[in-house]
Every structure is written in structure tokens, then in C-alpha cells.
Amino acid sequence: MMTETELQELQAVERIAQLRRALLGELRKVIVGQTEIIEQLLIALLAKGHCLLIGVPGLAKTLLVSTLARVLDLTFKRIQFTPDLMPSDILGTDVLQEDPETGRRRFEFLPGPIFAHIILADEINRAPPKTQSALLEAMQERKVTVSGRTYELPQPFFVLATQNPIEMEGTYPLPEAQLDRFLFSLVLDYPSADEEEAIVHLTTSAYEPDLQVVMGRDELLEAQELVRKVPVPERVGKYAVQLVRATRPKDPTAPDFVRQWVQWGAGPRASQALILGAKARALLYGRTAASAEDIRAVALPVLRHRLILTFAAEADGIAPEQVINRLLQTVPEP
User: For the chain, which terminal residue's Cβ has fewer other Cβ atoms within 10 angstroms, N or C?
Assistant: First the structure.
């Protein structure tokens, strides 16, 4: 017999699976295609992670994220990163205000655009390292400190940072240690011919989508807590760790192609990301435990930004995705 708590959690799991389908239905009113990207965004959001989204301009990145915020009834802010952007421009600053009654002056904190539930950090590699670090620290700590005072950021807090892969002049590439702070790295590709035709007809007509709120803030916070309670079988946990350790060229379990192509492999944070991503994916599909299938499904977005390839691999045109796909075929499930 199930306890009352277990029964409630099972009902919550079924509810989240229903919400996933409802969310996809609402997003379909605005976004054409990109099913895999949408699913990965939802996984990252449930796992309390952040995403790095790489794609050329005009692929509806802003529209996707702002629509997601609307159907979840969350606040949304877009920050356009530029070379002259300062940390105070995103975090906020103290402003000298005069009290109209007493005439006394005092400093009052004016919150920056980072005080929102969902943040789109557009072209994060255009801002100088000092500003990038301010954002990444806020992502990690979920609070900001200004003039010695600490301010909590609203919860849930989800950052989607974008990078333009074709225009690198005058940019400040994120160091590998900072890339590691993103749970997922997602690559947004061009739509298919049929999808592009649908996009053209949809966006050049008078059509105004009637979007409905699918999940509120409180329900989302409960779902995020539920992710942590999803059990992971021992063999699935071992599979995640073995997969990550196999990316390290100096590890005894690393295959020969990893020793040839990879200079630095993924760290323990990648193992954590695989498990959290697998838990969140299992929940989205209405399952009460994570599986090896879930690990494989999130392996690409978890590992692609955590591998540093050798010069020989780059010279041969080898991409991190090729290394990861080959690892998935090579590393056996325990």
C-alpha cells in the first residue's frame, strides 16, 4: 500500500507529464518546430539550471523564451550585451533619493533587469569579462551584492545566454570554467523547408495567438523540488559517471579516440548535470525514476561545452558532438 505522501507525489508526476503536453501545445501556437530545444529548455528549468544557446540571428530565440515566460506566468527581461555594458547595468545600483517630507537624502537600491524570473542574456560574449562574471556569479549564487548589501533574486530564476557562432570579432569568449556553470549548451539550427514555409506564413499574417497560462510560479517551484526526489537506480548513476570519466584522456577507461581527440574532459559537475537532467526528463515524461535512456538523451547538451579538443581533432574537423556520439556507442551500460 502506498502512503499518502507517495500517492501525492505520484499524482504530481502525472500532473507534470500533462503540463508538458499542454506547454508544448501553447508554444506551438507561436513557435514552429524546435521540439527538441523546447524539451531541453524545460528540462533545464525543472533542474534549476541555466542554458547557453548557440545560433545565428533570426531563429526566434527571444520569441521562444518570452513565450515560455508567458505560458508559465513568469516575469521576463532581455539584456542586450554590448562592449560598454557595466555590471551595475544588469545588477542595479544605489541612487541618491530625497525624502519629500523630511528633506533628508538617502541611497535607495534601484534593481537592474536581472531581477526577473527568466533572463535572456543576448550575445553574452559581447560584454567584457567583468560584466560576464557579474551575471555568472548571480546565476550561481541566485543573489546579488551591491554596496555591501545582498539582495535575493526572484525564484524560479532561469538564465538563457545566447552566442552568435558566426561573428566573433570584438567579442570576449567565455572561459571554460565559466562555460561549466551552464547546465546545458543548446545548438539552434536552421528550420527545415516545410517549417520555414510555416514560419513565413505565420509571422507575416494578422494572426495573434491566444496564449493560456499552463503552470504558475508556485506549481513550477514544487516541480523543481520534486525533481530532487526522483530516484536514480545505482546502475544508472554508474553509467553517468562512467560516461563522464571516459571523456578524460588520462583516465584508464578512456577509449583511444578520446586520447587522440580530447585535451581536457568533463569534470564532476558534468556527472551532476547528467543525473539532474535525467531526473527532470523522467518527470516530464511521467516516470517515477530516471533511466539510462534519459542519461543518453541529455548527454549532448551536458557535454558539448565541457570538452576541450586537441589541435589534431580541430585540424581534422572533429566536433565535440562526434566525440560524444561515439562515446554513447562505446561506453556500455552497467
Answer: N
| Three-state DSSP class for residue 263 | strand
Q: What is the tens place of the pLDDT at every residue in 107-164?
A: 777 888 889 898 898 888 888 888 888 888 888 888 888 877 888 888 889 889 888 7
- The domain ranges of the chain are 4-218, 230-330
C-alpha 287 chain-centroid distance: 22
Neighbour tally for 326: CB within 10 Å: 15
pLDDT in tens, 37-55: 888 888 998 898 899 888 7
Give the right CATH number for 230-330 from 3.40.50.720, 3.20.20.70, 3.40.720.10, 1.10.8.80: 1.10.8.80
The CATH T-level fold of domain 4-218 is Rossmann fold (3.40.50)
Please state the φ and ψ torsions of residue 321, each to the nearest 5 degrees: -60, -35
- By CB atoms closer than 10 A (0-12, 13-18, 19+), residue 219 is middle
Crossing angle for the helix pair 217-229 and 35-46, to the nearest 10 degrees: 80
pTM for the full model?
0.86
